[in-house]
Amino acid sequence: MHAVRLGEDLSSGKHWTRAAALTDRASSAVTCDNLELPDRTKLPTFISSIYKMSTITTPALQTSYPPILPKSFNANQPKTIRLFPLSNYTFGTKETQPEEDPSVLARLKRLEEHYVEHGMRRTCEGILVCHEHNHPHILMLQIANAFFKLPGDYLKPEDDEVEGFKQRLNERLAPVGTQFSGEGVNEEWEIGDTLAQWWRPNFETFMYPFIPAHVTRPKECKKLYYIQLPRQKVLSVPKNMKLLAVPLFELYDNTARYGPQLSAIPHLLSRYNFEFVDEKGDVVAVTPGGGPEEGYVPKTIVLAGGDDETMGEADIKEENGVQ
């Protein structure tokens, strides 16, 4: 078996294998099992067939053999979402925002009091997406160095859904006063599609993406919305929290760490096609997109915050919905 880089002499008819599905675009080492190349003149057709499903935009191509694109496969799709690079955003910190409840039990007790007085609690959380190396990353908060949550919170009983949600996002992520200036400081939140609804049937930690058949009076409904980030924005996180950029790769099927709600986000976003924009504003990749740069492995990035508070391991697991 022999991996041959593009540009090498391929006339010798060496055996190939496809070994670089996630390496550097068209300059990857591309190989195929038990396939002989008896004639160098067949190379362009061979290379085109390898990259047939690549959708790297024309300006970003790094090969002289552009791919053969299939017919359109976008029927009945929602609108394509444009993602901007993580480096476009500015991150800072602001004063600590202590959690309202010292424990999960205290939080459930307060939920019960809310239900008795106001009925079902309405909670709104936002899915904010940017990209790093053409891979979607979700912005989320980390509390006590282990408990993860999306930006947002429960609404006050008198709040309008959308306007109340914007206020909660500002409380969590908006910069304070004149801490920053310029584009993206006072940008209005753009609340997009509702991606999921999670229901709490009883005064307990578990929530479900459906209402169980025997439940007629759910105690809480949590809605997850897609938040369209602008080209630039300034975000400030309380000092007792961390703001993380978590790749979809890390979230997918990882209920042990993130719980069922957050680990389901890749499923929720799979209905969308993405355009990945670079710092210059050029679209460099589209769904399914080009591979990351050679040697790059998607990982969680700490953006701001980090004055950790202590929380018991049992409380952390309950908050994340992990049994």
UniProtKB/TrEMBL annotation:
Gene Ontology molecular function, alphabetical: mRNA binding
GO cellular component term of the entry, any: mRNA cleavage factor complex
GO biological process assignments: mRNA 3'-end processing
Recorded superkingdom: Eukaryota
InterPro entries, per the entry: Cleav_polyA_spec_factor_su5 (IPR016706)
Pfam families xref list: NUDIX_2
Residues making up the signal peptide according to the UniProt record: none
Protein name (record): Cleavage and polyadenylation specificity factor subunit 5
Organism listed in the record: Botryotinia calthae
